[in-house]
Amino acid sequence: MAENDIDVNELGEKIVRVLKTIYDPEIPVDIYELGLIYDVFVNEDRDVKILMTLTTPNCPVAESLPQEVQEKVKMIEMINDVDLELTFDPPWSQDLMSEEAKLALGML
């Protein structure tokens, strides 16, 4: 593997670690465990596309949270560009939360 080659899986893991540091201000669980991140794509040019949602379309952080996600992921060394797409299809539901998130919120 050449020095400038990257392991896309390794980069994906770094992105997930960063996503786990971002919290919905109303819920004490990170956005990854909450199920707000639908998909993360990384191409060979180290461009990242993130497909995410919010708990509701009129979420108080509808403007700031996606921006925070984009900025924090873009700070990862080796990332070229970050494109974030916000979707409400399918709408977020508690079924998307991880077991860890449900446990933290006393739902299990």
Automatic annotation (TrEMBL):
Coiled coil segments of this chain: none
Domain MIP18 family-like: 13-82
InterPro entries registered for this protein in UniProt: Fe-S_Maturation_MIP18, FSCA_dom_sf, MIP18-like, SUF_FeS_clus_asmbl-assoc
Region forming the signal peptide: none
Protein name, UniProt field: FeS assembly SUF system protein
Protein species of origin: Mesonia hippocampi
Upper lineage: Bacteria, Pseudomonadati, Bacteroidota, Flavobacteriia, Flavobacteriales
